[in-house]
From TrEMBL:
A GO BP annotation: maltose transport
GO MF annotation terms: maltose binding
CDD domains: PBP2_MalE
Pfam family, one: SBP_bac_1
Protein name: ABC transporter substrate-binding protein
Presence of keyword Cell division: no
Length: 429
């Protein structure tokens, strides 16, 4: 097996790791804390036993007990107590539990929380027995802090371009574009069709808008944190080019700078906005609204490239907390959740895309051509930097993106402001 104490992969010099794991750690009160970079301990042999507490968020928390039936059959002497946690209160619930020493044995962990929790000495390093190389590289980045892996990617998501194939054909477009210029031209051409109002739906700033902009940053060869994770790199020529390109959709009237919330599916089905960028969950949404036969009226394609085709990688991880009183059984549960066949079953239950590349060989996942496009994009999808201050920094970036899209702020000025604010906040290392 490949050791989980890895060096970061490099793809066009994009992304970074962080030294957040070296921060002063508090640990659980009962164990006094330990070195976050200490070697991972092996897992004891034999079946899981005893009691395990598990936290999972949203729909996953509600559906997880069904997935665990197989784990209980394999390990009849274990009891697993699953607590569903609402996403909007999950972060505060975790940090409070970490401080109080009452964190669960195993939990679903948001990918942007990993570095923060490692800095609190809350997570155990992943044992070397886990085949980390079998997971998507971008997903591995999301669980890697300062060169050490904590937890395992549980499921992934990435974003593609959704488009109305019937409207594209009417506009004379028979093949999806592969570069930035082609995407813009396609949006303009589809906007000019009889039902068109806008060519493409893009988020014009506000919370989470960095998820729409960063793929273009990465595509241009840019980055927002240095390779060693010690400094921010928002102000760069590549990033300026990417943000200016994104802005052009609004300044040239191709994308709506003031879209109404929750109208993407409706506008897509009506043809008013025949293209948008989003994740696999939107397939069920548009097909449900469009009705019988609508699945044949749209397609998806990978993000167009400048230097590379890049997209945002999201999803969730699963990890074991420091101080667990049933640590070996906790890791056995994590191992079960990340098996290819179990990930396929999870896909069937909640449509979560498997993080283990082997699961994509199963016909259940591979038979749908649209899912295969997501599979292709996952090869060049990037997780956000694993730095402890990311949530605070990216909120400043979102605010600047809004001024760029809605008020015509010069992209260079927006990036310089973000750079200055980010440097003041720091990386947390």
């Amino acid at each position: 097996m490949t050791s989980t104490r890895i060096t970061r992969r490099s793809l066009a010099g994009i992304g970074a790791l962080t030294a957040a794991g070296a921060l002063a750690a508090c640990g659980r009160p009962e164990d006094g804390g330990s070195d976050p970079a200490a070697p991972a301990q092996p897992i004891a042999e034999g079946p899981a036993t005893g009691e395990l507490t598990v936290w999972a968020m949203g729909a996953e928390g509600e559906a997880l007990p069904e997935l665990l039936d197989g784990f209980r059959e394999e390990n009849p002497e274990v009891t697993v107590d699953v607590t569903p946690v609402p996403w909007d209160s999950a972060h505060d619930k975790f940090t409070s539990a970490i401080a109080a020493g009452t964190a669960p044995d195993v939990a679903q962990i948001g990918s942007t929380w990993m570095s923060e929790f490692v800095s609190l000495n809350a997570l155990e390093p992943t044992p070397d027995s886990f085949p980390i190389e079998d997971f998507f590289p971008g997903a591995v980045e999301s669980v890697t802090v300062d060169g050490t892996v904590y937890g395992i990617p549980w499921y992934v998501e990435t974003r593609l371009v959704f488009y109305r194939t019937d409207i594209a054909e009417a506009a004379g477009i028979t093949e999806p574009p592969t570069d930035w210029e082609g995407l813009f031209a396609m949006a303009r051409a589809m906007q000019e069709q009889p039902d068109g109002t806008w060519g493409i739906a893009l988020q014009p700033g506000g919370q989470g808008s960095h998820q729409s902009v960063l793929p273009f940053v990465w595509s241009a060869g840019g980055a927002v944190v240095s390779e060693d994770g010690t400094e921010f790199t928002f102000a760069s020529a590549q990033n300026e080019e990417a943000l200016a390109y994104y802005q052009s959709y609004f300044t040239d009237g191709v994308a709506n700078p003031t879209p109404a919330d929750g109208t993407t599916e409706q506008d897509f089905v009506s043809g008013a906005v025949p293209m948008f960028i989003s994740g696999p969950w939107m397939m069920a949404a548009v097909e449900g609204l469009g009705g019988e036969g609508f699945a044949e009226k749209y397609g998806v394609f990978v993000m167009p490239q400048k230097e590379i085709s890049a997209s945002y990688l999201g999803g969730a991880n699963v990890g074991v907390f420091q101080g667990s009183e049933n640590r070996d059984s906790a890791w056995k549960l994590v191992e079960y959740l990340t098996r290819p066949e179990v990930q396929v079953r999870w896909f069937e239950i909640v449509a979560a895309l498997p993080s283990h590349q082997g699961a994509w060989e199963d016909e259940t996942v591979a038979s749908n051509a649209k899912f295969e496009a997501f599979h292709t994009q996952l090869q060049t999808a990037f997780a956000v930097p694993t730095i402890a201050t990311w949530e605070e920094v990216v909120a400043r970036f979102d605010a600047q993106i809004e001024q760029v899209c809605k008020q015509g702020l010069d992209p260079a000025e927006a990036l310089a402001t973000t750079q200055s604010e980010a440097q003041t906040i720091g990386t947390g290392s």
